[in-house]
Design a protein that fits this description.
Number of domains: 1
Largest sheet: 6 strands, antiparallel
Helix content: 10-25%
Structural class: alpha+beta
Number of strands: 6
Strand content: 35-45%
Radius of gyration: 16 Å
Distance between the termini: 36 Å
Oligomer: single chain
Length: 80
């Protein structure tokens, strides 16, 4: 494997790690950061964690007590 291939493989591994589902028992996101969450009953939503509870805002705040996993949101596309 060449140095260039190794570097490309390392970048791919980091990208995969950044876009993996993180169990809430492993760690929580930064306070008030918007992230993608998975709930056992309601599927996937964009939400934030205030240090005590998960919140989602779709025309009013919703509380998600059953979040099992989360992941960072991807970077927005570059618009030209």
């Amino acid at each position: 494997m060449t140095d260039r291939t190794r570097t490309h493989a390392e970048i791919e591994e980091l990208q995969e790690q950044a876009q993996r589902w993180i169990p809430v028992i492993e760690r929580m996101p930064e306070k008030d950061a918007l992230v993608l969450v998975h709930t056992a009953m309601d599927g996937n939503h964009v939400a934030s964690f205030d240090g005590e509870a998960w919140f989602c805002n779709y025309g009013g705040e919703w509380l998600f007590p059953n979040v099992t996993h989360w992941m960072p949101l991807p970077e927005p596309p570059e618009v030209k």
